[in-house]
Queue: 3 jobs
Job 1
Amino acid sequence: VQLQASGGGLVQAGGSLRLSCAASGRSFSLNAVAWYRQAPGKQRELVALIASGGNTNYADSVKGRFTISRDNAKNTVYLQMNSLKPDDTAVYYCNRIPPFSRGGFDYWGQGTQVTVSS
């Protein structure tokens, strides 16, 4: 399996970004899929989740600003991020629930860096 996250970058506070994450080698169409983020010195946290049926859930810190969606035909999940804040700065990862594994360990891919300047 390969997870390829993209769409990150440097943006000013109040700006928007759209992240994409494509899985190859394994399908996650039957699983819930989530976006996570990890800021320097902090633990990885769940940001948004979308069930196989389309129900969504968000961390309180991003409710009303972020929208998760999925395209099962493309095996891809998206995260539309609006009204970005400096606190949103982190490396963003996607994964299915439960996470993909490689060699007996959870596999996360490289993620994509989001940096929000004030």
Job 2
Amino acid sequence: VQLQASGGGLVQPGGSLRLSCAASGRIISVNAFSWYRQAPGKQRDLVASISSSGTTYYAGSVKGRFTLSRDNAKNTVYLQMNSLKPEDTAVYYCKMLVDDQQYWGQGTQVTVSS
């Protein structure tokens, strides 16, 4: 199984981006997924997640601005990011629980700057 993250880029403050993370390979089901981010010189932090039981979590700093969604038919998960701020600048990583195995995507850079 491989995860391919995409959708990052340069955006002005207040703008929006939608990140995608597509899983490919031998997949029965995607049971849980999450997005993390890592800014330069900082640790990788959890941004948002949906657990295998369906529980949704958003970090306080993104709550109300970021939204998780998924397309089961495409084995793809999304992170819609609105009202972006400079402090959202980071490399964003997706993580999926696929058939009880954890997989990480390669990361996509998000830069919020005027």
Job 3
Amino acid sequence: QVQLVESGGDLVQPGGSLRLSCAASGIVFSIYAMGWYRQAPGKQRELVARITRGGTTNYVDSVKGRFTISRDNNKNTVYLEMNSLKPEDTAVYYCNANFQVKDYWGQGTQVAVSS
């Protein structure tokens, strides 16, 4: 059974930092592209960052220079380091694993940025 378990969400003040983690099981993690998506209330889910199995990364423009995605294939885990957080980063953050037609999602972790 495939499981993606996110952790690390929290309430943080503007300008603060968080590190999200997504631990995967039930898949050959190293062959999957991994992504972080987010969904704010009343908005569509959007791709935040993605890392291919080869380590190539891409980011939505609004987080470039502030967020960093990385993966540890030995731990079957993908991370999202988030710095200089803004209120508009408030959302539920979801982990995604994708390989060809196989697509899996985690349950999400809440990030709230507020003073």
